[in-house]
Structure to design on (885 residues):
């Protein structure tokens, strides 16, 4: 693993979440995060005298990292957006009556008499554009969008019962630019503040994988030393030569993946190397055995049955699984062929005692396997993508608090092309106005409406007489905008960049969002808007798709493997015996998961696939060895299988000690599976196949 | 000899200036600490950049420590109520908006805090921040010690029975705001 990690340049290794989800799910999530409104992050911090300094530090010293920082809002914070909005107000709002307008002028003039200081100047600047005080609408919108259901207090968002505060921020760069986030967090570390959101997730995950790989390296070195010590003890150091095909095949398979995908995912490396390591098993099997023809027949059968699993699962909708399967099957075939053509003549003679255990206890353990398999339907799979996410304890506490207190509503959204304004308008109108929504139509209106609105202002202007000199001077910018709008008749659509629509538009699309508070609102949205997407359902659907694939593909692979084995042995008993390591290791994992309350995540399932591939090979080697006519085959076979098993456990056990769920779940599943393989290969199968005293 | 005279005069003047800056005018000492104040006003607001002067009438109501009402008699009765860090807006006695604690930066409330301090002639607040000059027996000019202060200078004229008859707040950008008070009702602390 380390070899390939080092040999591949860092730029070819991908650790993004994108490959973990089906393409359709990724498209949806990427669509959402391509709009500013979809990418809020939050700083959570304890209330203290440092809060004001932190807010100012974010805005001034770290300002380049953010588009928006929502704390201690300044009066000029959104001036540019407001000016843009007020310039276009004549298109969006119907004019008041002449009397209302005149009254309003007097009223707003009176308000201006209160203004003092530099903040007063800022208010005056906007006030001169806005005698109808329409900017209030915009302030409310901006505050509501970012508040997440929290309340403002002393310039910060908080909840009354707690002493924590929240600062919503909108980053100026994508979350995958981790170096920038590292730089940011290095600066914010001096405060008792925790970042919650996509940028934190990307940083935490990469950081923890790095830490875990350090641990894995140390443990792997220790276990490899133990392995080499065992090889020396059994005078089998020559067996190390069989690592060469594994290394060569890993590099070639890695190169193929980089050619196909542009990069290789870190998880593919973790999974694939283990599987390619099966090639080592073929080599060891060959070098410790004597009768080449029989051994390579077993190896070929092992290869075919393993390839069945990979080929079937390469039809998965999850790109990562597809990548893993292509990497593993290519690497395994190369490893197999390299060993066969170049190393099969290398032989090691070994003398080990080979008393086969035939105790009836091992037969009884077989019944545990049956009970474990019967428990399979009751297994609870936790396939939520959250399991891919790592957070340290401090972040976990902040996240827990944040999501517990954040506004609980379901979000639906739909993305439109820029020429689909009519459809978008129809969708917005189709929904009960009680359901909160955020769309471009929260700000702008159809061209027909805009025409009517502008016309009403035109009439107002034509009838406007008797304004005082002060009012004319004071609201000169307003009257100029009005005159320009009437003259230009430049009705607003998405072809013109508007600052107040930036959060809802990207290069080619715009987005509408609905926030539902209950099931009946959810039903209404789904019923009335075609192709609307629920963020919650997108995540749930991912889990469902994965479950469906597993429950569909696993029986297919089992049937094909069963048929291949039956064709080879023409004996039902031998065929079923070959599958004992698979069934036993699965049942051991099921029982362990109930006893130790293990999380069965996406990565656990990946681990089980790997065990699947390995276990059938062990079954085949074991059955072939036991029924072999050559009695002197058996000590060599036993040594080969032991050594193979040791190399596998040395590779995967360290992962079980990692902190990151992805690596830990993978390590635990494979380690338990390997224990099952070991016990079933060396104890259960012999006790079924051999009579007492028979070797 | 002439040089000595000039030197002595300079010193006397300088001494007087220092004295003036650090002492509280005796005339103002006659007023006790204000507990509540209720006064009608006529206001002139000069906006230099637009070359206009806005005139308005209204009423100010102050209650120590943190309550302040600013009424403007306009086409509608406007009322702004400042309570601690909250602002409530009324039009014709109907609340149209409220900015609760912290919805706006407390810096924005500084002008109101300053005005409140001046209306009750908060000796501690004023002495700490301003140098005081007597313009005549009833008129005093206050110049901020801090260059970042909101105002360039503040001039007050005291009344016969009330601490402030008129206040002129001169801003750094040339704008100014003046209030002339009438019908002032005051409760002093006992």
């Amino acid at each position: 693993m380390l070899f390939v990690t080092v040999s591949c340049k860092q730029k070819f290794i991908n650790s993004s979440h994108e490959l973990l989800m089906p393409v359709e799910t990724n498209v949806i999530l990427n669509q959402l995060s391509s709009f500013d409104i979809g990418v809020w992050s939050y700083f959570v911090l304890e209330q203290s005298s440092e809060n004001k300094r932190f807010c100012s530090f974010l805005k001034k010293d770290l300002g380049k990292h953010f588009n928006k920082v929502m704390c201690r809002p300044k009066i000029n914070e959104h001036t540019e957006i407001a000016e843009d909005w007020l310039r276009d107000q004549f298109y969006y709002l119907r004019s008041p009556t002449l009397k209302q307008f005149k009254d309003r002028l007097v009223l707003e003039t009176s308000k201006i008499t209160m203004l003092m200081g530099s903040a007063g100047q800022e208010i005056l600047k906007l006030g001169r554009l806005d005698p109808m005080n329409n900017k209030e609408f915009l302030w409310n919108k901006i505050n509501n969008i970012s508040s997440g259901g929290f309340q403002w207090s002393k310039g910060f968002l908080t909840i009354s019962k707690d002493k924590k505060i929240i600062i919503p921020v909108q980053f100026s760069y994508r979350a995958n630019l981790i170096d920038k986030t590292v730089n940011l967090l290095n600066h914010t570390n001096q405060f008792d503040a925790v970042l919650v959101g996509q940028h934190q997730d990307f940083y935490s995950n990469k950081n923890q994988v790095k830490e875990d790989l350090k641990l894995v390296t140390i443990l792997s070195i220790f276990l490899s030393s133990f392995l080499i010590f065992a090889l020396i003890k059994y005078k089998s150091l020559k067996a190390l030569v069989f690592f060469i095909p594994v290394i060569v095949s890993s590099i070639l398979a890695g190169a193929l993946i980089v050619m196909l995908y542009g990069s290789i995912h870190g998880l593919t490396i973790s999974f694939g190397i283990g599987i390619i390591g099966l090639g080592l098993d073929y080599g060891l099997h060959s070098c410790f055995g004597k009768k080449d023809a029989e051994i390579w027949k077993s190896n070929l059968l092992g290869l075919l049955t393993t390839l069945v699993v990979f080929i079937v699962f390469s039809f998965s909708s999850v790109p990562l699984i597809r990548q893993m399967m292509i990497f593993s099957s290519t690497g395994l075939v190369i490893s197999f062929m390299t060993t066969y053509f170049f190393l099969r003549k290398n032989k090691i003679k070994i003398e080990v005692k080979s008393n086969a255990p035939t105790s009836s206890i091992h037969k009884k353990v077989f019944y545990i396997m049956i009970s474990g398999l019967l428990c399979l339907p009751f297994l609870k799979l936790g396939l939520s993508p959250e399991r891919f996410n790592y957070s340290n304890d401090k972040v976990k506490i902040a996240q827990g608090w944040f999501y517990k207190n954040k506004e609980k509503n379901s979000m639906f959204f739909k993305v439109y092309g820029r020429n689909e304004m009519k459809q978008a308008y129809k969708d917005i109108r189709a929904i009960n106005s009680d359901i909160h929504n955020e769309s471009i139509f929260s700000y702008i209106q159809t061209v027909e409406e805009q025409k009517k609105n502008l016309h009403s202002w035109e009439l107002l202007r034509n009838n406007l007489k008797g304004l005082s000199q002060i009012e004319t001077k004071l609201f000169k910018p307003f009257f100029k905008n009005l005159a320009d709008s009437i003259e230009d008749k430049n009705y607003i659509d998405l072809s013109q960049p508007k600052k107040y629509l930036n959060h809802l538009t990207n290069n080619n699309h715009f987005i509408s969002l609905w926030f539902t508070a209950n099931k009946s609102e959810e039903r209404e949205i789904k019923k009335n808007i075609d192709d609307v997407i629920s963020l919650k359902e997108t995540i749930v659907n991912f889990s469902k798709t994965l479950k469906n694939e597993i429950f569909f593909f696993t029986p297919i692979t089992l049937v094909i493997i069963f048929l291949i084995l039956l064709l080879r042995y023409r004996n039902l008993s031998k065929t079923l015996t070959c599958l004992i390591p698979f069934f036993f290791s699965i049942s051991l994992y099921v029982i362990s998961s109930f006893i130790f309350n293990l999380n069965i995540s996406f990565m656990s399932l990946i681990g089980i696939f790997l065990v699947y591939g390995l276990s059938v090979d062990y079954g085949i080697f074991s059955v072939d060895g036991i029924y072999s006519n050559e009695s002197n085959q058996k000590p060599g076979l036993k040594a080969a299988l032991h050594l193979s098993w040791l190399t596998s456990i040395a590779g995967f056990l360290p992962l079980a000690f990692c902190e990151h769920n992805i690596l830990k779940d993978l390590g635990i599943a494979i380690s338990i599976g390997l224990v099952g393989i070991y016990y079933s290969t060396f104890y259960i199968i012999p006790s079924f196949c051999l009579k007492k005293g028979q070797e | 000899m002439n040089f000595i005279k000039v030197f002595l005069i300079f010193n006397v003047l300088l001494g007087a200036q220092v004295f003036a800056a650090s002492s509280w005018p005796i005339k103002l000492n006659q007023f006790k600490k204000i507990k509540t104040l209720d006064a009608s006003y006529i206001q002139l607001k000069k906006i230099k950049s637009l070359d206009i002067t806005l005139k308005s009438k209204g009423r100010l109501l102050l209650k120590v420590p943190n309550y302040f009402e600013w009424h403007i008699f306009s086409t509608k009765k406007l009322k702004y109520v400042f309570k601690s860090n909250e602002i409530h807006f009324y039009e014709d006695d109907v609340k149209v908006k409220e900015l609760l604690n912290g919805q706006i930066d407390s810096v924005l409330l500084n002008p109101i805090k300053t005005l409140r301090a001046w209306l009750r002639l908060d000796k501690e607040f004023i002495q700490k921040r301003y140098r005081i000059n007597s313009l005549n027996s009833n008129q005093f000019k206050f110049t901020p010690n801090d260059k970042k202060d909101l105002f360039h200078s503040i001039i007050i004229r005291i009344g016969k029975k009330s601490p402030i008859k008129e206040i002129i707040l001169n801003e750094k950008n040339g704008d100014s705001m003046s209030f002339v008070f009438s019908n002032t009702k005051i409760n002093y602390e006992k």
About this structure: Chain B has a mean pLDDT of 82. Residues 2-22 of chain B form the longest helix (21 residues). The two ends of chain B are 55 Å apart (CA to CA). The helical segments of chain B are 2-22, 26-29, 110-119, 123-129.
